[in-house]
Design brief:
With about 325 residues, this protein is an alpha/beta fold. Helices cover about 45% and strands about 20% of the residues.
Length: about 325
Amino acid sequence: MQLLINTFAKKNKFILALCASLGIFGSANLSAQTWPDKPIKMIVPFAAGGSADILGRILSQELSKNLGQNVIVENRGGAGGNLGAEIVAKSPADGYTILLASGSMMTVNPFIYKKASINYIKDFSYITTIATVPMVIAVSPKLPVNTLAELIALAKTKELNFGSAGIGSQIHMANENFLYSAGIHATHVPYKGENPALNDLIAGQIDFMAGNFPATGGFAKAGQVKALAVTSSKRLKQLPNVPTVSEAAIPGFENTGWYALAVPMGTPQSIIDKIYIATEKSFKAPSLLANMETNGLTPMMMKSKDVDAKIQAESINWEKVIKARNIPTQ
C-alpha cells in the first residue's frame, strides 16, 4: 500500500510540474500573440533636439498608427548613448521598451567606454537599421574662415576647438575622422547633446563642429552658423551650394551616421518581426518620407544579420581612428 501511495505521489508531482511548465510557456506565447496591448517606450539615448531625437519623433508617429498603441519617445542621454542603452538592456524582454541607437554606440563605445556595464553584442537583438544621416561641417560666425580649406589652414596655425554630443557619439567621431583625414589637431569639447553644442557654436564658444544635418541644417540655412562642407558623397539638395568634403579639401572623404532599432536580448522573435513589419510599413507613408527628406534623413532598412555584419565591419575602421587620434578610454 505504501509503495502504491509513493508511486502516486511521484506521478502527481510530475504532472503538476508539467502543467506548471505548460502554463508558463502558454502565458509567454499568449503575451507575444497579443502584443502590443499597452503603450511602448522608445528610448532615445541623446538629448532632445538632436538628430536621433528628431528621427525618433518622426518614426514614433507612424509606428503608433501601425502598431495600434502609442509609441512614446523618452530621452535618456549620457555616456555616448550608454546610459539609455543600459535602461533598455535591463528592461523586460517583452517588446515594450525599444532602443533607437546610433551606429557609434555599437561600433565606437566598446573601444572607449571600457567600464560600461552593457555589451552591445550580448545584450541586444537588432531589429533593423532605419536611416542614414550626413553631417555638416560648420563654423562659428565669428571664425574668420569661409571654406573648408581655410579652416584646415587655420587649424595648422592656432589651437581650435570643436563640439560634439558627447564622447564617442557619431558627431564626435565624424569630427575626429575629419581631423585624422586632414592631418590637423583640435581640442574636443563634449556636451550632453547635439543642441547644446550647436548653441555654443552659434555663440562662438566653440570654433567648429561636424553636426548631423537634421540639427545643424536649419541653423546653416538661417545663417546662424557657416556651413563649409557636407560629409556625404554627394551634395545635399537642402544645401546645394555647400560642397562635399571630398570636393572642398579631402578627396574621397565620406562619413555618414546611421541609426537602428534594438530590443533586449531574449525578446520573442514574433514581436521583433511585428516591429520590423510596422517599421517597413511606416517608411511607405508619404508624410514620414517628406519629413525625413526635409531633415536630410534617408530611410535604410536592413535585416538583423546584416546589421550585425555592419557593426563588425565598422568597428574595425573606428578602432583605427580611435588609436590614431589617441582618444582616451573612459
